[in-house]
Design brief:
single chain; 109 residues; alpha+beta; Arc Repressor Mutant, subunit A; two-stranded antiparallel ribbon; 5 strands
Length: 109
């Protein structure tokens, strides 16, 4: 039995271009892959992927700006704030047909 994944078809050309540009970056893809199954802190992402922490924070901002990453916050026992990041997408489907680009995001529930 095949299970249908919830998907979102992108209509705006600027949004399509932005998404494809973001997803062409290997660090952005690594961060999304790392955070698909459970929310992680920037430190956990760095430890898992080997991406420098400053690059992780820059790419997190880029992914958040493009609505591909959700952010949740928490306060530790010591009173320190920390943030967790989770991918909003599980995958992307893109086709180029007769000069038209179609982009569909497979949502991560």
């Amino acid at each position: 039995m095949q299970v249908l994944q919830p998907a979102l078809k992108i209509q705006e050309i600027e949004r399509k271009d932005g998404l494809l540009e973001v997803l062409s970056d290997k660090y952005c893809r690594s961060i999304l892959e790392s955070t698909i199954h459970k929310p992680k802190s920037a430190i956990e992402i760095t430890a898992e992927t080997g991406i420098p922490i400053s690059t992780v924070y820059r790419r997190i901002q880029t992914l958040h700006d493009n609505k591909l990453l959700s952010t949740s916050g928490n306060i530790s026992v010591e009173g320190k704030k920390f943030f967790l990041y989770k991918s909003k997408i599980r995958g992307i489907q893109s086709t180029f047909n007769d000069g038209q680009i179609e982009v569909e995001l497979i949502l991560n529930n």
